[in-house]
Amino acid sequence: PYELRTFNTTFAPKDSMPKKKGGRGRGGGKSSRGRQKRSGRGSGERRFAYDASDIEKFDREDKEKKDELERKRREEEDGEEDAGDQGGVGQPLRAVREEEEEDDREEEVAMYRQKITALYKQHNPSKIGDVDRLMAQYSGKEDKLYEAIKKKYIGQVKEKITQLYQKHNPSKVADIGRLMTKFEGKEAQLLAAIEKKYAAMSISEEKEPKQSAKTEKKKKPKKKSEFDKIGSIKIKKMKPNVLKDKLKERGLSTQGTKKDCMDRLIAWEAENF
After folding, report:
1. Per-residue pLDDT at 35
2. Looking at residue 215, what is its pLDDT?
């Protein structure tokens, strides 16, 4: 299990190394060993000593290499197992991925089905029964189907609101875009509220001309008579013959008592003046 290491050295304990005379002393010069080291010359083999820490280091390195080789071998075996009986590469992994994509696809289809149903419920409830057929017909193109239906009905709502504002309140036309964004998903309710508001205003506008016509009729001046107004006080002071003459001039009956004639003439003046 261990790599064979070869060293061109001779192992010897440090204490067994021969000691040479010389060295730095009071009157001595440099040792001959030092001179040999500097000049590169010496007699005999050079000796190195290794302690236990060096051996442990070598063993650790060998173990790391062995573990790395074992890891690579296992990865290769796992790759061969994943290949499957058909010899494909990563077949189980692809199967998992395809299953996840299919789940995502089902969620997307359900989302568009819900959105399309909500649009029909708001704008055209009679079309709700056609949702399944449309989803099958436009399978894989649900997003385009939804956008087309949305564009149709939201466009109709926007057009109707624009017409109402142009007729009743032109200053609100600039706010249509903001309102459509604010009431997204509730466009039908927005249109119904605006229609109700301006329908009530239209009814009140129709009533006002009728009321004004009635008022004018009441204030319409009475026909001016060809006779001058006498007044009730003067009528009561008239003599019977004068009273009868006034009644005859106005084409009124002179029958009855004086009081009856006076009341008749006073009533006639009330109607004509």
Report:
1. 47
2. 58
- Cα separation, 247 vs 128, whole angstroms: 83
Query: What pLDDT is attached to residue 40?
Result: 45
- Tell me how far apart the alpha carbons of residues 195 and 165 are, in angstroms, rounded to a whole number: 10
Distance, CA of 162 to CA of 190 (rounded, Å): 12
CA 170 to chain centre: 29
Q: Exposed, middle or buried by CB within 10 Å (0-12, 13-18, 19+), for 238?
A: middle
Tokens of 263: 């009341």
Mean pLDDT in residue range 165-182: 88
Q: How much is the pTM? A: 0.40
Q: What's the confidence (pLDDT) of residue 113?
A: 92
Give the relative orientation of helices 142-168 and 187-219 as an angle to the nearest 10 degrees: 20
Please state the φ and ψ torsions of residue 90, each to the nearest 5 degrees: 65, 35
Asked if the model's pLDDT at residue 5 lies above 70, the reply is: no
Distance CA 185, CA 161 (A): 16
What DSSP state is assigned to residue 94?
A: H
Amino acid at 76: E
Cα separation, 194 vs 161, whole angstroms: 7
